[in-house]
Amino acid sequence: MDWLFKFPFTSKLDLESIDRVIRDFSIQNKVFFDGIKSGLTAMINFLYMILAWFPWWVYLILVFILGYSIKRSWKTGLMFSAALFLIGYFGVWDLMLITLSIVLTSVFLSVVFGFPTGILMAFSNRIHSILRPILDTMQTMPVFVYLIPAVMFFGLGKAPAVLATTIYAIVPIIRLTNLGIRQVEEEVVEAAKAFGSTSIQTLIKVQIPQAKETILTGLNQTLMMAMAMVVTSSMIGAGGLGMEVLISVNRIEMGRGLVSGLAVVIVAILLDRLSQGLAKGKEKPE
Amino acid sequence: MSESSTLLLRVKDITKIYGKNRKDAAQLAASGLTKDAIKLKTKATVALYDINLDINQGEVFVIIGLSGSGKSTLVRFFNLLHQPGEGVIEYKGKNILDLKSKELIEFRRNTVSMVFQHFGLMSHRSVLDNVAYGLEVRGVDKATRYAKSREMLKMVGLEGIENQSIDSCSGGMKQRIGLARALACDTEILLMDEPFSALDPLVRKEMQFELLQIQRRLKKTIIFITHDMDEAFKLGDRVAILRDGRLVQVATPQEMVSNPADEYVESFIASADKTKVIGVSQIMQTPTCVVRESDGGARALQEMRLNGVSSAYVVAAGMQLKGLITAQGALDAIEQKKSVYDFLIREIPKVEVDAIITQILPLAVSSAYPLAVVENGVLRGIVTKASVISTMI
Known about the structure:
The complex is a heterodimer.
Chain A: H1 2-5, H2 15-28, H3 30-53, H4 56-71, H5 74-90, H6 93-123, H7 125-140, H8 144-154, H9 158-183, H10 186-194, H11 199-228, H12 230-233, H13 241-251, H14 254-280
Helix pairs in contact in A: 2-8, 3-6, 3-9, 4-5, 4-14, 5-14, 6-7, 6-9, 6-11, 7-9, 8-9, 9-11, 10-11, 11-14, 13-14
Chain B: E1 7-18, H1 22-30, H2 35-42, E2 45-56, E3 60-64, H3 71-77, E4 86-91, E5 94-95, H4 101-110, E6 112-115, H5 127-131, H6 133-138, H7 142-155, H8 171-184, E7 189-193, H9 201-218, E8 221-226, H10 229-235, E9 238-243, E10 246-251, H11 253-258, H12 263-270, H13 280-283, E11 290-292, H14 297-307, E12 311-315, E13 321-326, H15 327-336, E14 350-352, H16 357-366, E15 371-375, E16 378-383, H17 385-390
Parallel strand pairs in B: 3-8, 3-9, 6-7, 7-8, 11-12, 14-15
Antiparallel strand pairs in B: 1-2, 1-4, 4-5, 9-10, 12-13, 15-16
Helix pairs in contact in B: 1-2, 7-8, 14-15
C-alpha cells in the first residue's frame, strides 16, 4: 500500500541533456548571438550617451513641465522635480541614467515587437489561442529562469539583461493592444468598413485611435514591469541602481541599500505618473 | 406613385444559417418548420430563409420585424458587412456577391452608405472629421471634403459644432451627424439600421420629419430598418414584414392595412396608429345626394327626402363641386321661385382625395356637414364623422 502515500512513478528526466543541448546550440550559433549582443549593446550605449548628454537640470525642468501639464498644478511639478533632485543629491545620478538606458531600451523593444503582435492577435482568433498560453507562461515563470538562457546565449552584461527584461515586460503591451482593439465598439468598426475603408485604413484611422487609451495603459504596465526587473537583471551584470542594491544586500550595508532602493522607487513612480498622464491626457480633438 | 419607377436592387432566394448541420436546417426550413423547432433539432440558427425582394429606385423601403427576426442581418447584406449563405443580391442587374474585395470597397465608397442604430461615430474625431470620414477614405482632398461636410451638417440642422467632440453631443445630434456622414458620400443607396430607436420619442418624431424633408429633396433609395410600425407606415413607400427570418408580407402601408396577409401582420398593424395610414379615399362614400346648380328647390328637396338627409351637394358640369344647399335653402328657393344656385353655401369643408385621416381629423370633428372629397375640384365622395371615428377604434 506504499503507492497510496508515495508517488509511484518518477521519470528519470535527463536534465543534463537539456543543458547540453542549449549549450551546444549557443556555441554553434555563436556568431548569430554575438551579433545580436553587440547590436543591443550599441543600442543601450547610444541611449545612455543621449541621456548623459543633457545636464541634470534639464531633467528637473522637463519633469516639472510634464508634471504641471498632467495635473495642471505647479505643486505636482515641483514635487516631481524635487524627487528627482533627491536622486542627484544621493549621488546616484549616473547610476540612474544607466538603469534608465536599460529600462527604456527594453520598453522600446517591447513596443516594437509587442504592438504588432497584439494587433495580429486581435485580428486572428487562431493566433490569439496559440499565443495566450505562451503569454501566461512568460508572465508567471519566475523571472530568474530567464536569466539562465540569457547568460548562456549572450554571456554577462547589459545586452542579456535587456533581453530578459524585454521577455518579462513585453506581455502587457501585447495583451492590452489585443484587448483594446477587440474592445472597439462593433458598430464603429462596421461604420468604417461600410464607408469603404480598407483593412489598413480601418486599423490606422479607427481601431488603433479608438484603442489608444488601453494600449497606453499597456505601455505603462510594460514600463513598470521593466522597472521591476532592474534588481534581478543586475545579477547578470546589468549595472546601474539595481547593482547598487545587490551589492548592499551582499555586504549588508543598510544605508547604501536604502539610498539606491529609494532611487529605484522614485524613478519608478515618476515613470508611472508621467506615462499614465500620457494615457489619460490629450483627449482633445484635432 | 412608384409604379413607374425602375428596379434598383433585387434580393433573390437569400438564406443565412448559422452553426452546424446547415443542410439539414435548410431542408427543415423548406418543409416549413419554425426557427425555434429547427434550432432544437439541428442546433443551427436559421437567421433568414428564402428572402426575395425587389427594391425600386427612389423609394423608402422599410423592413420591419421584432428583435431576432433577422432584419439587421438582412440590411447588412446590401453592403456585405455580413455575407449571405446562399442567394443573389443584384444591384442594377449585377450580383454584388461576385465583387472582388477591391470592387467591394469601391461599391461601398460610391454606391451605398449606412446609418447605424448606436450611431457608430468615432469618438476620437471631431464632428467634422466624422462627417468627412467617407470622403476621406475615398481620397478626397481636405478642402473639398470639409466643404461638403459643412454643407451636410447644415442640411441636418447642425451648424457651428464642427470642431466639437462627439462625446459632447446629445443622442439626437449624434444621429444627425451619422446621417450627415452618410449623406456626405452622395451615394445612391442609404441603409438605415434602426436609426431612430435609440432616441427619445420627441427627438425621434423630429428626425422622422427631417428625413422625409431630406428625402423629398434628394430622392435616395433608402432601406430603412425598424421595429416600430408607426415609423414604418410614416416613412415607408413600401413595407416588408419579417418574422423569424421569413418574409410575411411586402406591400404599401395602405394595402397592408386593408389586406393584411395573416394575423401576425394584423397584430403588428394593431400596434400602429391607423389614422396615419388610412387615406380618405379608403373610407369615403359615394355622394348620393347631388343636385345640379340649375335645378330648382323642389328637385333638391325631393333628393334630400329620398336619401334621408338634410343637405345636398351642388355640382356643375363634370361633377365640379360648387357648394352645398340645405333643406332650408331649398324651401327658400321654392318660395322665391329661383334655382338652388342663388341659395348656395359656397364655404363648405373640402378635403383632397389623397389626404390621410390624421390630416382631416380636426376638420371632420368641427364641421357641421359631411366632408366633401375632391380631386382637382371634382366631387369624388363624402366622408362622414362616423366613418372617420370608426377608423380609430
